[in-house]
């Protein structure tokens, strides 16, 4: 069969239509539901309310609080993932002894289910019986409220996210480092450029495109965090560690307020889209410069 053979459409279009129906129908249905007042428990007949759900959400202080909390966790964790991941990737790119063992070891956290990681972290950071606090008590220090005070809880969630997803950053940046041309570094060495000067003048600018992509992917994924928060703190204390996806879960699967939850999901999509557009707009001049 050649590329011009019409028979190819017989095989391609059914698959394309199935994928479109599976992906577009739920999206359209969810968008339609977001303009309705629809609750399953207690069952209330669907009623068109226009932008009522969106207006109610935007006037709800809880929505803005969970958006701010999600932003803090996402931005902080991704920033640390990038810094640590870049440092480790640079070290592995130097062909350190035991490089193969380090590569496997660093990738292991990424292969563990987030729920399992969160369960282990919750046990380790337990305010009363956790091993970490037992060590603190043994040395005469007071128990630290890792999961019961707002700032400690946000820090604990961020640390778990960094531990689990830094391997992804390492993997991607290491792949990018290994594609950089050696002749540029050889020329820099002839000019007696120090390792720091080579990093600032060569490595970092040339890694800008892949760095932007990695940070963007991790930022979007971090905004969708729910499993780690749900297991470790359940959004507490109070709602101080509640994220946007956990807020949507509470409204949709506990209160069965489908119209409100659909509106929340699309506002969540708008928030992520705006953040992504701002991120790309800020980086665009630098990406074009180092293309």
TrEMBL record:
One of its GO terms (cellular component) is plasma membrane. Keywords: Cell membrane, Membrane, Transmembrane, Transmembrane helix, Transport. The chain crosses the membrane at residues 12-32, 66-92, 104-125, 151-177, 198-220, 263-283. It is found in: Cell membrane. It is a multi-pass membrane protein. GO terms for biological process: transmembrane transport. Residues 67-279 form the ABC transmembrane type-1 domain. CDD domains: TM_PBP2. Pfam families: BPD_transp_1 (PF00528). It comes from the Bacteria. Belongs to the binding-protein-dependent transport system permease family. This is ABC transporter permease. The lineage of its organism: Bacteria, Pseudomonadati, Pseudomonadota, Alphaproteobacteria, Hyphomicrobiales.
